[in-house]
Amino acid sequence: MGEKNMETTERLQKVMANAGVASRRASEKMILAGLVSVNGKIVKELGTKVSVSDVVVVSGKTLDIEKKVYFLFYKPRGVITAASDDKERKVVTDYFKNVEQRIYPVGRLDYDTSGLLLMTNDGDLANKLMHPRNKIAKTYVAKVSGIPANEDFKKLRLGITIEGKKTAPAKAKLLSSDQKKNKSLVSLTIHEGRYHQVKKMFDAIGHPVEKLKRETYGFLTLDGLTSGEYRELTNDEVLHLKNK
């Protein structure tokens, strides 16, 4: 307990409130009632401060008091969306060596897909964002073989049956095309997250993906970042995600 070298300390009731135990006022009452222990000792002093290395137990349940952090990462191509890889390939957490918290990606992007990826240690928020009911729109820009026709875009917009299941309606449009090279740049916005979904949708219309990038995730964009860079989300951005 008390002040820790090189560690941030916060009042116990605030830590409890942040961990979702109860409101700060209700947490104070629990402390005074002797329901909280720190490092094995009952604490009844409201001025007590704790850090992430302290073990806080409330009514028999140990609290996770690691500070929650949230990052927007521009994932490069050729990087695994995982915290580690048994083949020793580069993973997304390699870009966060200076972050002391144990963070992990929210969802995934394929090895050869670049773009916007959220990284956090907030499991509750990550699970919420990945749940199908939230229908978060994600926009991808794909370089595809050939030049899709209007009929192809209509199929993407209405939904395509992949492996026996129809995709939800999507937004799709042609950004540019190169007649000589027979290539196109296409924008596709979906809110599902099925395995290899974007690639399979373009395969289904006969225009396989050659290069893929996720440009947006809900209201978040890659503005101001280059490949391999990241930034912390603002408090307003975090609240917006939590309130979705």
From TrEMBL:
CDD domains: PseudoU_synth_RsuA_like, S4
Domain RNA-binding S4 as annotated: residue spans: 10-71
Keyword flag Signal: no
A Gene Ontology molecular function term of the record: RNA binding
Enzyme Commission numbers on file: 5.4.99.-
Keyword annotations: Isomerase, RNA-binding
Origin organism lineage: Bacteria, Bacillati, Bacillota, Bacilli, Lactobacillales
GO cellular component, one term: cytosol
Cited SUPFAM superfamilies: Alpha-L RNA-binding motif (SSF55174), Pseudouridine synthase (SSF55120)
Protein name: Pseudouridine synthase
PROSITE patterns linked to this entry: PSI_RSU, S4
RNA-binding listed as a keyword: yes
